[in-house]
C-alpha cells in the first residue's frame, strides 16, 4: 500500500533465512513489518533507522491501524521535525518477537500450520538487530546516517553500534541502559507472572480459543506503566483525588483517579498487544547485557568505532536513571569514541522521550544536523 512519503509507506516482507539466534534456535524465514518515510538518496547515504520500545511498533509517525491514534513519535518524526522525510529515508520495523506483523509467537509455524505460541525460539536484543540488518540489506541500505531509539529502542541502538559499527555513522540513545538492573528484571517478572497466572493463558496456547489472557496482560501493563512515570508527575496529575463511586472497571469500584487511569491503560493495551509477545520481549530486555557480550567490559563493545554517539537521560526517570547513561558515556570515553551527553529536566519520568519535551527535539536536531554538515 503506497502513501505520500511524508506520511509513510507500510510494508511487510518475508526474508529467507535461516536466522540463527543467540539462544541456539533458528528461524527458517523472517517476517518483518515496517514503515518507511521519505526516499533513499542516490548515494544511499540518508537512511535513519528508528528502533521502538517494548510496546511500540513500526507506526512511528503514521496513524495506528488498531487504535486510530497518531504515530508514537510524531513529535520527533515528520515534516519540519528533527527526523524529516524531506532529508532522511526513515525506516522503522516491528521488532522480532512482537505482534504487529513481524515474526513472533503469534506467527504461524510453517512446519505445523498453527501459531508458534511458546514454541517460538527465545530471542535477544541482538537477534532483533540482526533481523533489522536483514531488512536493511533487502532495502539496499548499507550504512545508516543514524540509528535512533529510546528505552528498549536505545538498547537496540547500542547493540547496532557494537555489532555493526561499520554500518552506523551516528547513534542516538535516549532514556536507556546497557543492561537491566535487578529491579528492572523484578518488575518484568511481576508482569510475566500476572500473564501466566491468568487461566486463559493456557500455557500460551490461547490463539485458537479467541480468548486471550486479557486480565493478566492488563495487570502487567499497569505494573509496567507505573515505572514509566514519576512520583511528581503522578502527584501533580492525580494526587489522592477521588472520583465518582459508580465508575467501574473489571467489576471493582475505582475510588481514586489514579486507579481509573491505570485500569484504562491496562484495558486499552490488550486490544493492540499479544500476551506471549510481552513475555518474549521482556525476557529479551532482561537478558540484555552489552558488557557481558564483550568480556565484561562495556568499553570493549565500542573500541575502534567511528560512530558518533548522543546519549540523553531525564532527571525524573527512575526506570533508567541518569547513572545508567553516565555508565555508557564513561565506557564510550574509555573506548575513545566521540560522544555527547545531556541530562534533560522533565516531570514525565521515563515516558518523557515520547512526550512534549522541546529540549529533546533540539538536542536530536542539532546532533543530526552536525553530522550532515
Automatic annotation (TrEMBL):
One of its GO terms (molecular function) is homoserine O-acetyltransferase activity. The keyword GTP-binding does not apply. Residues 46-355 form the AB hydrolase-1 domain. InterPro entries: AB_hydrolase_1, AB_hydrolase_fold, HAT_MetX-like. GO terms for cellular component: cytoplasm. Homodimer. Belongs to the AB hydrolase superfamily. MetX family. Transfers an acetyl group from acetyl-CoA to L-homoserine, forming acetyl-L-homoserine. This is Homoserine O-acetyltransferase. It comes from Sphingomonas oleivorans.
Amino acid at each position: 500500500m503506497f502513501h505520500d512519503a511524508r506520511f509513510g509507506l507500510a510494508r511487510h516482507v518475508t526474508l529467507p533465512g535461516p536466522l540463527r539466534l543467540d539462544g541456539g534456535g533458528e528461524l527458517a524465514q523472517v517476517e518483518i513489518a515496517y514503515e518507511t518515510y521519505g526516499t533513499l538518496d542516490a548515494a544511499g547515504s540518508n537512511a535513519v533507522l528508528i528502533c521502538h520500545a517494548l510496546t511500540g511498533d513500526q507506526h512511528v509517525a503514521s496513524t495506528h491501524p488498531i487504535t486510530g491514534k497518531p504515530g508514537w513519535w510524531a513529535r520527533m518524526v515528520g515534516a519540519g521535525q528533527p527526523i524529516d522525510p524531506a532529508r532522511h529515508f526513515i525506516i522503522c520495523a516491528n521488532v522480532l518477537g512482537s505482534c504487529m506483523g513481524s515474526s513472533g509467537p503469534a506467527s504461524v509455524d510453517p512446519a505445523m500450520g498453527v501459531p508458534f505460541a511458546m514454541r517460538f525460539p527465545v530471542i535477544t536484543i541482538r537477534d532483533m538487530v540482526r533481523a533489522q540488518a536483514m531488512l536493511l540489506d533487502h532495502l539496499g541500505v548499507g550504512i545508516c546516517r543514524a540509528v535512533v531509539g529510546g528505552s528498549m529502542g536505545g538498547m537496540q541502538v547500542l547493540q547496532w553500534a557494537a555489532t555493526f559499527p561499520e554500518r552506523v555513522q551516528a547513534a542516538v540513545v535516549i532514556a536507556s541502559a546497557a543492561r537491566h538492573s535487578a529491579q528492572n528484571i523484578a518488575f518484568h517478572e511481576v508482569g510475566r507472572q500476572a500473564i501466566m497466572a491468568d487461566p486463559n493463558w493456557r500455557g500460551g496456547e490461547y490463539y485458537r480459543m479467541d480468548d486471550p489472557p486479557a486480565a493478566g496482560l492488563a495487570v502487567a501493563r499497569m505494573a509496567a506503566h507505573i515505572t514509566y512515570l514519576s512520583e511528581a508527575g503522578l502527584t501533580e496529575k492525580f494526587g489522592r483525588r477521588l472520583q465518582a463511586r459508580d465508575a467501574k472497571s473489571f467489576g471493582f469500584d475505582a475510588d481514586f483517579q489514579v486507579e481509573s487511569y491505570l485500569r484504562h491503560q491496562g484495558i486499552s493495551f490488550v486490544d493492540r498487544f499479544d500476551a506471549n509477545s510481552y513475555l518474549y520481549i521482556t525476557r529479551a530486555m532482561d537478558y540484555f547485557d552489552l558488557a557481558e557480550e564483550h568480556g565484561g567490559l562495556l568499553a570493549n563493545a565500542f573500541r575502534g568505532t567511528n560512530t558518533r554517539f548522543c546519549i540523553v537521560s531525564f532527571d525524573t526517570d527512575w526506570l533508567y536513571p541518569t547513572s545508567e547513561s553516565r555508565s555508557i558515556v564513561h565506557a564510550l570515553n574509555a573506548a575513545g569514541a566521540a560522544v555527547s551527553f545531556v541530562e534533560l529536566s522533565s516531570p514525565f519520568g521515563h515516558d518523557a522521550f515520547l512526550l512534549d519535551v522541546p529540549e529533546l527535539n533540539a538536542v536530536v536536531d542539532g546532533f543530526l544536523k552536525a553530522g550532515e554538515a
